[in-house]
Specification:
Blueprint: E1 7-13, H1 21-36, E2 41-45, E3 53-58, H2 60-63, E4 73-74, E5 80-81, E6 83-85, E7 97-100, E8 104-105, E9 116-117, H3 118-129
Parallel strand pairs: 1-2, 1-3, 3-7, 8-9
Antiparallel strand pairs: 4-5, 6-7
Helix pairs in contact: 1-3
Bound molecules: zinc ion.
């Protein structure tokens, strides 16, 4: 059997989360690694402005006009959508990855400060960007439609 050809998906950042550039890069690149380790995709950062995936951290106002396909939502005092990954396709936003701009932590422990683990939410949303839908059957799947406790830090 012939080995699967590795496909390269390019990405770049429009901006960074409130964690700062270095921590944001660490969290997102770790999330890409999760998928690279289990499928024939390779994610490469490019700096020429021509990328498949635009990663952006947006304010509530900036998010209002966006098409949302992931119900990862906040039900706490700051209502709104936490993040969403656009499915592959032909629109200008296909494959893009958008996050709220300020609700992130790089910790995996619950601290009750209303922040969320950026790495794990990014793994979920990248799943949408590469074409995966929600998995409602397996409660341990990263593609389950609801946030698990440890993701909310
Ligand atoms: Zn989702």
């Amino acid at each position: 059997m012939r080995p699967l050809e590795t496909k390269v998906l390019t990405y770049d950042f429009q901006n960074y989360s409130s964690l700062g550039k270095e921590k944001t890069l660490n969290e997102i690149e770790s999330a890409f690694s999760v998928w690279q380790n289990v499928c024939n995709l390779k994610f490469e950062r490019v700096f020429d402005g021509i990328q498949a995936m635009n990663i952006a951290f947006l304010t509530d106002d900036e998010k209002q006009n966006a098409e949302i396909n992931c119900p990862y939502k906040l039900n706490n005092k700051k209502s709104g959508t936490l993040a969403y990954g656009f499915y592959p396709g032909d629109s200008t936003m296909s494959g893009d990855l958008h996050f709220d701009n300020e609700r992130w932590s790089d910790q995996k422990t619950v601290s009750g400060d209303g922040k969320f683990n950026l790495f794990s939410v990014a793994v979920h949303e990248i799943g949408h960007c590469i074409g995966l839908f929600h998995n409602t059957e397996d409660k341990d799947s990263i593609m389950r439609p609801n946030l698990s406790a440890w993701i909310q830090c």
